[in-house]
Amino acid sequence: MPSRAVCEGARESSMSSPTMKQIDDDGRVKRTGTSLTACAHLITAVLGSGVLSLAWAVAQLGWIAGPAVILTLSAINYGTSVLLCDCYRSPDPVTGMRNYTYGGAVKNILGGRKHQYLEWAQYTTMVGISIGFTITASLSMMAVEKSNCYHKHGHEADCYSSEYWFIAAFALIEIILSQIPRFHDLAGLSIVASAMSFIYAFTGLGLAIARVASGEGGTTSLTGVGLAEGVSASEKVWRAFSSIGNIAFSFGFCVILVEIQDTLKSSPPENKTMKKACAMGGVVITLFYGACGMIGYAAFGNKAPGNLLTGFGFYEPFWLVDLANICVAIHIIGSYQVLAHPLFSAVERWCSNKWPESKLVNSEHVVGIPKLGIIHINYLRLIWRTSYVIVMALVAMIFPFFNAVLGLIGVISFWPLAVYFPIDMYVARTGMQPWSMTWTCLKLLTWTVLAACLLGAAGSFHELIEGIQKYKPFAPHG
Length: 478
What we know:
The relative contact order is 0.19. Helices cover 68% and strands 3% of the residues. The protein has helices spanning 4-14, 35-46, 49-85, 102-109, 114-153, 164-177, 187-213, 233-249, 257-261, 270-300, 318-354, 359-362, 379-398, 402-430, 437-470; strands at 89-90, 97-98, 365-369, 373-377. Strand 1 (89-90) and strand 2 form a beta hairpin.
């Protein structure tokens, strides 16, 4: 009698008809991922929009609190990620049964209703990130158009533009890429996108360093933006809270960590490989974020733009700014797929289990395209993923608020996905005694981070409400 894992993997395995040497221990196509590909997936997933908002976030907090928040959230994220790596297999982290998804790990280790809350938090975060990425990509492409206009007509020119055409173009690209059937098949796209993130992060960092070196840096302070910049005391507090959310958004790779770990080959053990990838990815992400946040703040001071590359703190060399923004768009094209694919697959698995005899849901149709080769088309995949991308694009058109959206996503996702569930699963898996020293410290960390995230959510929501009150949908913006 076949195992549960073999049954779940039958549909995926049948697409390529692999030989026995190409089959893993669970009946699925043999995984070939390494620490390098896993690290690329992690970087692709999070080293994007967060870089662009960090100068603004540090400006709201100042030289003391800004770097402290970045380092603290980075350390917390790495520590809980290490705990989560041991949850891919259960009950034993090396020889146990595979958990293909974060939700599956929570269900098998914690049981009860907690896995339903986890899936709600995880998939809500993926939806939010899809909207945030759509906004970011469109703003970057719009910035290219405006940058060329400013270069041609001067920095004071009325270079009005609309992000809606760029949102539509981005959605069309994502509709096509969303038909890639398996997460594992995204490795090449992920590596390309990761390379793009290095290019624009280095570009933004280099431009900020050049601005500081030229003596054009802005006015900074230990406490950040204050009354001197025309910000009231209450607004200062709201912005500080919102900046916590923007920084938290930067460290949110726990949302897809288990799914990435499911792409790794089994020797050496997946948990060891994934911990190595988390260490490498965590160091790279923290260094980039710390440098971009602090040097960006030094370059623009308390007037740092919400988006380092699209806020037009830099005008020249215009071609370099254009290149950086194009790289942002390419990176986000890949990041969108990496973050959305677990949600795509979850809905398709549910439909397959619900209607196992449906040809619409389960049939794969082979189509030959000249010069492109053979592709597999599934009608459910085509309809569902296309609809998802279109809906995300429409929401992005209605709420194109970069910092508020990123901050709200960050705080909503960080506590449950990066703190609560990894710690809860670790406590359950190790049989830790309540009120022991370690248990008490972990619980104290859990509730402290929750309090900080609630403050961040309040700040981001306040900023979002203010933006909605002033915003005119479907109108051109300068």
